[in-house]
Amino acid sequence: MARIVSAEILMVDLEPKVKRTDAIQSFESQETPIVRIVDSDGAEGVGYAYTIGQGGPAVMSLLRDTMVPRLIGREAEDIGRIWRDLLFATHATAVGAITSLALAAIDTALWDLRCRKAGLPLFRMLGGAKDSVPMYTTEGGWLHISTEDLVADALAAQARGFAGSKIKIGRPHLSEDRERLKAVRAAVGPGYEIMVDANQSMSRAEATRRARMLEEFDIAWFEEPMPADDVMEHAGLAASTSVPIAVGESMYSLSQFKDYLVTGGASIVQVDVARIGGITPWMKVAHLAEAHNVPVCPHFLMELHVSLVCAIPNAPWLEYIPQLDGLTRTQMKVSDGRAYPSTAPGLGIDWDWDAIDAARIDGLTAKFG
Residue 69 phi/psi, 5° resolution? Predict the structure, then answer.
């Protein structure tokens, strides 16, 4: 077994290619903490996480001062043991976003290292359930976009072979959301899926009103209608509507997903590999969802999630939002609206280290070992 002999952390900040707004926030930037780990055989693994504009330096501080120093000398193959040891080393800050994002950067690096040494792509290492997955796009559905442009983007995606589009909702009045969705449905026809996302912006009463309206348009799912920590209200809403309720991007532990699944509050699980703390807990959530016959449709991070959704049988969709184009030499393979995981050993992300070095933020780097 090879031990970890060195590690490096750094962060870059990427500006989104398009303006991204929803009912509660704007996606201002993508702070991207990156971890590189090298073992005693000379093998390397690279992992990462992200924020949407705030908190990146706090993640880097936790990595630098608490987590990464504890990696040196550990067996690189002991991924599950390392994950749990780091969780308990930071027990006072868990469960929460900062700890989970830091854990994810390390955990994904360790999985990358394991797969590279085994000569296997991540999706095969974890199960290899399928070799491609259909996509829906969110990039043309942000809340500020005009109805005409929503329609144009959905039609363009449909022409490219995409099977669905996500439309952000949460305009000041229900009638505004209704007119936007009506126009898109009329344009794309009945065989194209429309997902909607309220980004935790609604009360139970307002979510109930909008769910009733959404039934008219045969919506694929109603995402995060209410604050994500309100399990019982989501369970009540799910029981009152035929529209599937999707949650998970704002949850940070296996136990939170367990509560949603056993109460019936989640019709669709949207576990985010960065926000749950890495591949190790992501797979546990995916298997838990499978045991409840619930599909997994993860949030963001398509370049990493493509391998995870192709590893498991209960993942019917990948969300299309490009995030790493500025940091990679090649992009995720897309053909006729389907995404294909890389068959190269590791996570399948072709990092451009010249671009990363040029974009790294001074003062937020450190080396160990």
Answer: -55, -30
